[in-house]
Design brief:
single chain; alpha+beta; eight-stranded antiparallel β-sheet; two-stranded antiparallel ribbon; 5 helices
Length: 240
């Protein structure tokens, strides 16, 4: 247990250091993904925005929610280094900050869904679609993809309240957390927008040294519900 309490603050610190480190370097987000054997192709019908250009993007799901499990000061969520907006402006695609050694991030999904439902005891198994087909060509060439819906209690950019999360995991590669944010018009095209973001990302098949190291240090099985660890009262809000 002591190991977990030490590791989680380090993980959160690592997220922020990686987020700002990626912004401080001269490397583009595309370059950073390429170094980790991931390809990004900007999808047609979407345009670049300033989201994530200078600072990582945070996505509050339910700012008033306080999870009742975990150590004191725990945050929920992740950061995103690239945001694209549809030409109709009814959808925003968010691409997560990548940390080469973080090959498993599925625990964040449980936190996000529980926050969306304001229920720290919710078994999210029925709210997750898991894809592990023999042919993952249409799913970013990942090994495992998890897809889940969220309702944002605070509209992103004052407009987008409907969200779909997409989790990508591939052996010895950094895991990715993607988001499809939609307004009430955009959600009518939800299926197409999910296909669009999945089609814009592709994992290669070459393991990186950092990814192999991550498999030894950070790999955890995808399993819901996770064991509960009561702790001090967590900090309200998210990582943003």
């Amino acid at each position: 247990m002591k190991h977990r309490l030490i590791a989680l603050p380090i993980l959160i610190f690592g997220i922020w250091m990686s987020s700002f480190g990626q912004k401080a370097s001269n490397k583009s987000y595309h370059d950073i993904l390429k170094e980790n054997d991931i390809t990004l192709n900007l999808p047609s019908g979407f345009k670049l925005t300033d989201l994530g250009k200078d600072n990582p993007i945070g996505l509050p799901i339910n700012p008033g929610y306080t999870p009742k499990y975990g150590f004191s000061g725990r945050n929920i969520g992740w950061t995103y280094s690239l945001g694209l907006k549809s030409e109709e402006e009814d959808c925003v695609l968010l691409y997560s900050t990548v940390v080469p050694q973080f090959v498993s991030l599925s625990s964040i999904i449980e936190d996000e869904v529980q926050a969306s439902m304001s229920d720290s005891d919710l078994d999210i198994s029925d709210y997750i679609k898991m894809v592990t087909d023999s042919d993952m060509t249409e799913y970013a060439n990942a090994d495992t993809v998890l897809i889940y819906d969220l309702q944002l209690k605070e509209p992103f950019l004052g407009k987008y309240t409907n969200a779909t999360g997409i989790y990508l995991q591939k052996y010895a590669h950094p895991a990715m957390l993607l988001k499809v944010l939609m307004d009430d018009e955009g959600i009518k095209n939800k299926t197409q927008y999910i296909k669009t973001i999945l089609g814009s990302i592709k994992y290669g098949d070459s393991a990186t040294p950092e990814g192999l190291a991550g498999e030894k240090s950070f790999h955890t099985p995808i399993k819901f519900p996770r064991p509960k660890s009561p702790g001090g009262k967590p900090k309200e809000g998210y990582i943003n």
